[in-house]
Design goal:
Shape: elongated
Low-confidence stretches: 26-30, 358-372
Order of helices and strands: HHHHHEEHHEEEEEHHEHEEEEHEHEHHHH
Helix content: 40-55%
Number of helices: 16
Largest sheet: 7 strands, antiparallel
């Protein structure tokens, strides 16, 4: 049985596997199956060079338009080599070539009497390659140079699979998706060799596209082939078309996130507190700030407006997460509190700009010209992330099959996906913090919200 990183080590030391024998277990010499693909491709290039090249060109034309093929031809040699390796493996597993004028499936031809000489291990590897389809997986945990944990995107109830992998784990990140074939080797799993990584930006749209294909093709073999073709096509699209602009959406309203803060001067604190105390939908105090909450159709209480004590004396800040919430929130607040406050100005920011640029530019505000120093930036980021994920544990999430984290974690596979999701947030935050020269924000509050520790 494959050990997970936090399991007790097989050597009996009592330590966790990741702190004991994990690295040494993975430092063995390459196994006999490791060269199978190279040996078969060398044989095909020697004996069927022309038809093999025609098969690769035909596959590329099936995957890309003519304009996209022209862009592909301008990519660097290293990238084109990686593309050739992936497409060649697909042809070994599922492709066809002409042999003496007859169309032959490549794996059947290679395994037949006219194919190359292979050892029993190599034949087994080729048969696994033929029978294990190219699938898309969520990467939920990565130990660089050793292993990764994968969850099948289209089979949310399938158990996570721990895969031994040295090279790929150096660049793969938690939260990304990976198209691959998983092969059984003795008592553990490995990748076949070809890998189709997708960034977090592309992962959700790729998963949705494959879900639609799975629903369209019910026949198992046709479905597997169609999924494989689309995984390759969408992977190639990342090289030939610009990435889409990520739009962060509010989970409840479905509107684009826009962090809006309206600043008010408080002219009468006592009147302000009394006015808010009379509102049944307002929770909080002057010491902790207030939330105007809404009881939603799913039974959850969600903060629509947050009223924070301002950094400057005698000020409060009205925080909302979308422009629509900002408009209704401001109208509600001013009607409730009347003339005991005076509106000053508005600050508005796209959360993508804060997370990517680290607040290096001043907020785009009405009448505001506020440059953020490092200490204020750290505080702003912690506050922003805390507010963005305030109701995270109870919000449906697309990457969890539109389940909430609390719902998803009721199964072993769902629990692994929830853990992977938080790990991806942490990984992304560490990268963005390093780029912005600021301290990373801790996501410990998310682990605690679902009763776990990292």
């Amino acid at each position: 049985m494959t050990l997970r990183s936090n399991d007790l080590c097989h050597c009996g030391s009592g330590k966790k596997y990741k702190h004991c024998c994990l690295k040494s277990d993975y430092s063995q010499e390459p196994a006999e199956h490791a060269d199978t693909a190279r040996i078969l491709l060398d044989w095909l290039n020697r004996n069927h060079r022309k038809t093999w090249h025609v098969a690769i060109e035909s596959l590329l034309k099936e995957l890309l338009t003519q304009d996209e093929l022209e862009v592909l031809s301008e990519l660097d040699a290293e990238t084109n080599t990686a593309i050739l390796i992936n497409l060649s493996e697909w042809l070994l597993a599922e492709g066809s070539i002409l042999v003496k004028g007859e169309k032959r499936r490549v794996p059947e031809y290679l395994l037949g009497t006219s194919g190359p000489r292979m050892t029993a291990v190599q034949r087994n590897w080729l048969m696994q390659l033929e029978n294990n389809p190219l699938r898309l997986y969520d990467v939920t945990d990565v130990i660089p140079g050793a292993q990764m944990t994968l969850c099948d995107v289209l089979s949310p109830h399938e158990m996570p699979i721990v895969v031994r992998e040295r090279t790929g784990t150096q660049s793969l990140k938690t939260g990304e998706c990976l198209g691959c074939r998983i092969m059984r080797v003795d008592t553990h799993y490995e990748l076949s060799g070809a890998a189709y990584p997708f960034s977090m930006l592309a992962s959700q749209s790729v998963g949705e596209r494959l879900q639609a294909i799975a629903e369209e093709f019910k026949h198992e073999r046709r479905q597997a082939q169609s999924l494989g073709i689309d995984i390759m096509s969408m992977w190639l699209q990342q090289w030939v078309t610009p990435p889409p602009i990520l739009m962060m959406m509010d989970a409840y309203s479905g509107e684009p996130l826009q962090l809006v803060t309206d600043h008010y001067l408080v002219k009468d604190w006592q009147a302000l507190e009394q006015a808010l105390r009379k509102c049944a939908d307002v929770h909080g105090s002057r010491e902790d700030g207030w939330d105007q909450v809404l009881e939603c159709a799913d039974g959850q209480l969600r903060p629509m407006v947050t009223i924070n004590i301002g950094k400057l004396p005698n000020q409060v800040e009205l925080f909302t997460k979308t422009l629509a919430f900002a408009a209704t929130g401001r109208a509600w607040f001013e009607e409730v509190v009347g003339d005991c406050v005076q509106y000053l100005h508005r600050q508005s920011a796209d959360p993508r700009d804060i997370m990517i640029n680290g607040g290096g530019e001043p907020f785009a505000g009405h009448g505001a010209d506020i440059n953020i120093d490092s200490e204020a930036l750290d505080e702003l980021m912690e506050k922003t992330i805390g507010q963005l994920y305030a109701n995270w544990a109870n919000e449906p999430i697309g990457m969890l099959g539109n389940l909430t984290p609390r719902q998803a974690m009721q199964t072993p596979a769902g629990l692994e996906r929830v853990k992977g999701l938080i790990r991806s947030y942490e990984s992304g935050e560490e990268e963005q913090a390093a780029l912005a020269h600021r301290a990373p924000v801790s996501y410990a509050f998310l682990w605690e919200s679902i009763g776990l520790t990292d």
